């Protein structure tokens, strides 16, 4: 090995460790104390706006209330998952809430709260059709959790034409 190669390798390794250390310092779990962390709530609110377009109320004030209820149902849904699944989901959400993770997995540059809905929808579509199984699984997890929490509310059943469970 040449001296120049060794110095370059040392510099690149040191930079990678510094970036990883800084990332670990700002790492916030996606799930803690029985509920989604604030960054994860912002992520799921953005995903809900993109996935549930046309279903969410159009009035911004009513939509904000509906999204709060949606995020509360997500807390309940995630609390019912197995602990190992919850831990994996927490790690995934934490990764998606960092700029490098958001860019690597979703291909989204701006923060979830700042990204236009069209950009979030494009990022989700790119994950859905990605050649990477991991990116497709991330898309499916975000979509399924969001849809599951939204359509678990009896108030959304009317939109589907579902009269509700049969009463005995």
Mean pLDDT: 86
Strand count? 2
**Total tally of structural domains:** 1
Provide the gyration radius in Å: 19 Å
Order of helices and strands: HEEHHHHHHH
Q: Note the overall shape.
A: elongated
Uncertain ranges: none
Structural class comes to mainly alpha
Percentage of helical residues? 55-70%
What is the makeup of the main sheet? 2 strands, antiparallel
Q: Give, in spatial order, the strands making up the sheet with the most strands.
A: 1-2
Distance between the termini: 79 Å
* Helical run tally: 8
The percentage of residues in β strands lies in under 5%
Protein name: Twin-arginine translocation pathway signal protein
Keywords: Signal
Signal peptide: 1-18
Can you give keywords for this protein?
two-stranded antiparallel sheet, single chain, 168 residues, mainly alpha, elongated, 68% helix
Q: Which helices and strands, and how do they pair?
A:
Blueprint: H1 3-26, E1 31-32, E2 35-36, H2 38-51, H3 60-79, H4 83-96, H5 99-106, H6 117-128, H7 133-151, H8 157-160
Antiparallel strand pairs: 1-2
Helix pairs in contact: 2-3, 2-6, 2-7, 3-7, 6-7
Describe what this molecule looks like in 3D.
With 168 residues, this protein is mainly alpha-helical. It has one domain. 68% of the residues lie in helices and 2% in strands. The protein contains 8 helices and 2 strands, in the order αββααααααα. It has helices at 3-26, 38-51, 60-79, 83-96, 99-106, 117-128, 133-151, 157-160; strands at 31-32, 35-36. The chain has a two-stranded antiparallel sheet. Strand 1 (31-32) and strand 2 (35-36) form a beta hairpin. Helix 2 (38-51) crosses helix 3 (60-79), helix 2 crosses helix 7 (133-151) and helix 6 crosses helix 7 (133-151). The radius of gyration is 19 Å and the shape is elongated. The chain starts with a helix and ends in an 8-residue tail after the last helix.
């Amino acid at each position: 090995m040449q001296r120049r190669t060794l110095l370059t390798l040392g510099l690149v390794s040191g930079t990678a460790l510094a970036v990883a250390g800084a990332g670990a310092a700002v790492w916030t779990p996606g799930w803690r104390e029985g509920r989604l962390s604030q960054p994860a709530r912002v992520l799921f609110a953005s995903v809900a706006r993109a996935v549930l377009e046309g279903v969410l109320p159009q009035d911004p004030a009513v939509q904000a209330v509906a999204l709060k209820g949606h995020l509360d149902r997500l807390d309940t849904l995630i609390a019912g998952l197995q602990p190992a699944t919850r831990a994996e989901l927490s790690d995934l959400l934490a990764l998606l809430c960092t700029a490098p993770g958001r860019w690597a997995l979703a291909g989204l540059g701006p923060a979830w709260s700042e990204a236009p809905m069209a950009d979030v929808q494009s990022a989700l579509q790119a994950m859905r059709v990605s050649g990477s199984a991991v990116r497709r699984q991330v898309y499916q997890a975000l979509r399924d959790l969001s849809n599951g929490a939204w359509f678990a509310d009896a108030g959304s059943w009317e939109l589907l034409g579902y009269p509700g469970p049969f009463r005995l």
